[in-house]
Write a structure and sequence with these properties.
Layout: H1 9-16, E1 19-22, E2 27-30, H2 43-48, E3 54-65, E4 68-79, E5 82-92, E6 108-109, E7 118-126, E8 129-137, E9 141-147, E10 157-165, H3 172-183, E11 188-190, E12 193-198, H4 207-234, H5 241-253, H6 263-289, H7 294-297
Antiparallel strand pairs: 1-2, 3-4, 4-5, 5-6, 5-9, 7-8, 7-10, 10-12, 11-12
Helix pairs in contact: 1-5, 4-6
Length: 313
């Protein structure tokens, strides 16, 4: 998994966006020092996600340990042209924030020391069949995404999750267990490990999810179909970003008439999804926040993050 390196334009784009490719499972996954680590987390990201064609089940799990407000969030669903899932580790040091304010806080991503307190692992199944697995690994953002797979409904996806809390984590395991049980989960334990299944979210989902899901999933299906057609045209059998770009360049050398290429149509679909998604999201968030543009919404001071990891490579 760790031997892949970007060698093409698309490969470098994927790497620059914070991801690498695992040839053994044919998936994209997040790097430790991805640029997203600078952005932290706030509930507003989940509210905005459907506008970017991300139709996700999200489950933030809040608890307090070691003088910090912690949040471990789970995601699974359709991310545009890919099906995938995530586990994110975040915290906040403002213990004076009143109960119930968790969704208004901006959490920072766990730093290098904090991620060593636990190890994360999951298996993602769809309709009972495993798509891929990740971990165990100490990480702030353990993810996996399979390009060209369309999933609807998201409830057909199930994450089997195992989190091991190391001795240095103190009471994190106990507090996390209490938070899980409070949400309605029934975790099992073995030594310092906690195992549970994420199927249907226990927490309230963003209103934008329900407003935008039918239209965005229709766009996602079109995008996935276009991607599959493009792979077939280029003779690709994997999702390796390097192979994709190289094959495309070779295809171009053979001077195929543009009218026969799928790629321009796929790009057009992507542009339409982004443009329409922004309009729809602005409209829905306007209902929730008094007709304020969603991007102006993110300029509020409360969403800004001042924490930057020492390393970003």
């Amino acid at each position: 998994m760790g031997s892949w390196k970007p060698q093409s334009a698309l490969g470098f784009a994927v790497f620059g966006a914070g991801f690498k490719y695992d040839s053994a499972q044919d998936i994209i996954y997040s790097r430790m020092y991805a640029p997203q680590r600078l952005g932290g987390y706030t509930w507003a990201y989940d509210v905005a996600a459907p506008g970017g064609s991300m139709i996700l089940d999200c489950e933030p799990i809040y608890f307090v340990s070691g003088k910090k407000k912690w949040m471990i969030e789970l995601w699974k669903g359709q991310y545009g042209l890919e099906t995938g899932c995530e586990i994110g580790l975040y915290n906040h040091t403002d213990l004076l924030a009143p109960p119930g304010s968790e969704r208004r806080l901006l959490y920072r991503c766990a730093n290098d020391h904090e991620i060593q307190l636990l190890t994360l692992a999951f298996s993602l199944k769809r309709d009972g069949k495993e798509l891929f697995r990740r971990g165990p690994e100490s990480h702030w953002w353990l993810t996996g995404f399979r390009w060209g797979v369309f999933t609807d409904p998201t409830s057909s996806l199930v994450m089997d999750i195992e989190i091991a809390f190391l001795p240095a984590s103190g009471d994190m395991r106990h507090e996390f267990l209490q938070a899980l049980k409070k949400l309605g989960y029934h975790p099992t334990t073995s030594g310092h490990k906690v195992h549970f299944t994420f199927h249907r979210p226990k927490t309230l989902q963003p209103a934008t999810r329900y407003a935008l899901e039918p239209r965005m999933q229709s766009h996602n299906k079109t995008l996935v179909d276009g991607y599959a057609a493009l792979k077939k045209e280029l003779g690709l059998r994997s999702n390796d970003p390097n192979a994709f770009t190289i094959a495309r360049e070779r295809r171009a050398v053979r001077a195929v008439p543009k009218k026969h290429l799928v790629q321009p149509r796929a790009r057009k679909v992507v542009n339409k999804v982004v443009a329409r998604g922004r309009r729809l999201l602005d409209k829905e968030l306007g209902k929730l926040r008094g007709d304020r543009d969603v991007f102006a919404f993110f300029h509020d001071k409360v969403w800004h993050n001042t924490h930057h990891p020492a390393r970003t490579s």
